[in-house]
Amino acid sequence: MNLDNLEVLSPAGSFESLRSAVDYGADAVYLGGQSFGMRAGPENFTYDSLKAAVGLAHSKGVNVYLTCNTLPRNNEIPYFRQFMEEANDCSVDAVIVADLGLLSLVKEYCPDMEVHMSTQTGIVNYVTARELYNMGVKRVVVARELSLEEIAEIRAKTPADLDIEAFVHGAMCVSFSGRCLLSQYLVNRDANRGECAQPCRWSYSLMEETRKGEYYPIAEDTDGTYILNAKDLCMIDHLAKVAEAGVTSFKIEGRAKSSYYVSVITNAYRMAVDVLKQGAELPGWVREEVFKVSHRPYCTGFFFGHPKDCQYYPNSGYIREYDVAAVVDECKGGRIYCTQRNKFCKGDEVEILVPGKKFGTLKVSELLNGNEEPIESANHAMMKLIISCEKEYPPNSIIRIKK
Does residue 50 register a pLDDT over 70? Predict the structure, then answer.
């Protein structure tokens, strides 16, 4: 097992999230343009912002993969040439494709562009992976429904220079590899074109046809049940086994998530991969980091066989125990100069997250506003603040507080 080429692949739904991924140790990021991407909700990237994003990432040695992984209709195909020409001009390192037709067009329009085949393709066997390789694909993102044994067999029966990527963390879809019609049926938002309304997170009850208005909960909860709601995936304790199966790119879900989420989870998996390469044991505090973002209860998905406990019926809410209090702008003269994100007060105990290290702790003994006037609480969004602190922390370190 070669651990040298393991990749931490982080989501970037906005420029702020991209900076977070780069700062906190991602080897590569994946992001979307204004079309052809499976996340219509995030900011995504215009031509100019994509060019700037690639420039920033490449200056730090980070690769950029551009998503064009929707299932486009006939009327969208004529626009794909311009999309690819702009991607090529921005120097993205690869495009992520789900559709065989788009794969053929990528090869026609940009023959030197590296292509990764998306999890939406539904790659579940070595024959498909091998045929995609023969069609010019450099990497396959295997279906989330595969076990480690199945991934290992794909690895064993495909060319060694075909990369294998797999999701190791984040939200999971109840439908096969994200191919879902529920959202389009219920609210006319096509999940296969990046517009999912997540109806799998809604509460459902049964009603017998002849008894109008009489609802029967599917579970014991009298408010109904979240029968389609999945837990979140978390494999931070099992990365060695994922690597042994032949996965070289550890993908973090979350292009619709906050930059704080991207910072924390990227940092945790970066440190976990580094520990794995050193042959050391994962420190408990690194494992605990994944619980310091908004998340649903965690599970291991299909990696160890049938996911007997991956559905979560009580509710669709997140567990959220920490808030971002502020972001560090600079440190000098025994002070932290920062920008507020959520309310906190003088006397509070806070944690300061820094890239690649264990978080620091600090009691806010002195709190000043931007005019250096003493205040008791920081209660205005984006206000400039000054906190006394003997240690120095790099810019963009995150000050967080337990709720």
Answer: yes
